[in-house]
Amino acid sequence: MLPGRKIYIETYGCQMNFSDSEIVGSLVLGSGYETTTDPGEADVVFINTCSIRDHAEQRVRQRLREFRALKKKHPGMIIGVLGCMAERLKDELLEQEPSVDMIIGPDAYRDIPALISAVGSGQKAVNVMLSLEETYADIQPVRLGSNGVSAFISIMRGCENYCAYCVVPFTRGKERSRDPDSIIREAGDLVQKGYREVTLLGQNVNSYAWNENGRTMNFAQLIARVAGIDPQLRLRFATSHPKDLSDELIGVIASTPNICRAIHLPVQSGSNRILHLMNRKYTREEYMNRIRAIREKIPDSSISTDIITGFCGETEEDHLETLSLMQWVSFDYAFMFNYSERPGTLAAKKLRDDVPDVVKSRRLEEVIHLQQKLSHESNKKDIGKVCEVLAEGRSRKSEHQLSGRNSQNKVVVFPAGDIHPGEYIRVKITRCTPATLIGEVSPE
Ligand code: SAH
Ligand code: SF4
Ligand code: F3S
């Protein structure tokens, strides 16, 4: 049997996984396949997976059951599992999910064309080798499902922080930085194609470090270089670890208008005891110092965060400390999660997952409730202000409205008029919800 020609890729998890799917897309196009957005007509179905919480894995399992039904209708269809679940479960997944033909870890994507051929000749194929060097620097990603305005560029891979709860160091391997010239080239190419916003991606962009033949570059220097390509190109980045968000980077953001005023700084918990158990390597006070530095140098920056509730040993007092820190910072936005124990992590090996589910969920609700209030307050402060918005596309609610984001990464909805996606416009904010700013095009 010959391998099929059409490949469908579905992606779960973080932005880095979406960026990886674009690399996979490029690799399969390069070997003569086409991508399709309809799994029903695909010869090869790839699911790029996430292991960050049990719930993320359960969603993928459900989707695999649906693909199995599809495969019954289309015998010969190849199903491949990519990404973090592939890396975590390896060939175990072949036993658990008989419809799966291929298991490919995040550093093995170059092997995909060869693996498809192997499956085409009747074998199951697995490659979950992690690499110390792979950054896919030379691969030009195909922009899957892109709005033609904003794109991601992956600047590093892996993570060695070993936060006690986190599976990423195990699924993504050692930290490595990508050649800055290839990053600058990719950004320049996006500008040529009309893109107006680039997000530089890594698990911990602040530890970006390029060092070759005596040439060194850190993250602050890299983002300054990319921002210098074109003042009309907006730069964002994710994610920063609080332990190494440098004053140098804060200074570069402050002095570079096209680096967005939005810093995502995951805090996880407001309690020093829990931060220590989480192996986060900073204290509440050190985190607060970083916030003070941002507020002083970039007063108009928004600050967002990630929070985990119900980590091992978390008491009511620890939880209250998280709430009080949220109040103190007054986060503009937050991603909030119940702690989910991941096999193989430091916490799974050394600590007891002892906060009952009902307590975790109640604490999560309190955290979400507070954040909604903070987000709403933050948005209300913008009413009456004029901000610059990059138009991205039609608003979800109305044909006649466009949606875009301001520098602070807040979603702004405004009348479409004859404005096109990719244009910068000044919008005066007139109303808001906790999640969205609503405004009118401003003559100012
Ligand atoms: N590298 C990034 C984020 C990686 S994962 C960083 O360090 O900030 C995104 C978020 O998922 C984390 O910030 C954390 O809040 C959450 N998360 C990670 N592992 C988790 C787990 N086991 N249970 C619940 N939430 C988790
Ligand atoms: Fe996970 Fe921590 Fe690495 Fe982020 S920094 S990916 S939370 S280990
Ligand atoms: Fe998930 Fe892997 Fe990203 S575990 S969050 S897809 S790095």
Report on the structure:
With 444 residues, the protein is an alpha/beta fold. The protein has three domains: 5-127, Methylthiotransferase, N-terminal domain (Rossmann fold, 3-Layer(aba) Sandwich), CATH 3.40.50; 150-380, tm_1862 like domain (pyruvate-formate lyase- activating enzyme); 386-441, Nucleic acid-binding proteins (OB fold (Dihydrolipoamide Acetyltransferase, E2P)). It is built from 14 helices and 21 strands. A six-stranded parallel beta sheet has the order 2-1-3-4-5-6, with helices on both faces. It has a five-stranded mixed β-barrel with strand order 17-18-19-21-20. A hairpin with a 3-residue loop joins strand 20 (424-432) and strand 21 (436-441). Helix 8 runs parallel beside helix 9 (247-255) and helix 12 runs parallel beside helix 14 (357-380). The longest helix is centred in the C-terminal third of the chain and has 24 residues, at 357-380. The N and C termini lie far apart (64 Å). The mean pLDDT is 96. FE3-S4 cluster is lined by residues 13-14, 16-17, 50-52, 83-84, 167-168, 171-172. The site of FE3-S4 cluster has 13 residues, from helix 1 and helix 6.
Features of the shown structure:
alpha/beta, 444 residues, pyruvate-formate lyase- activating enzyme, OB fold (Dihydrolipoamide Acetyltransferase, E2P), 5-stranded mixed barrel, 6-stranded parallel sheet, binds iron/sulfur cluster, Rossmann fold, binds FE3-S4 cluster
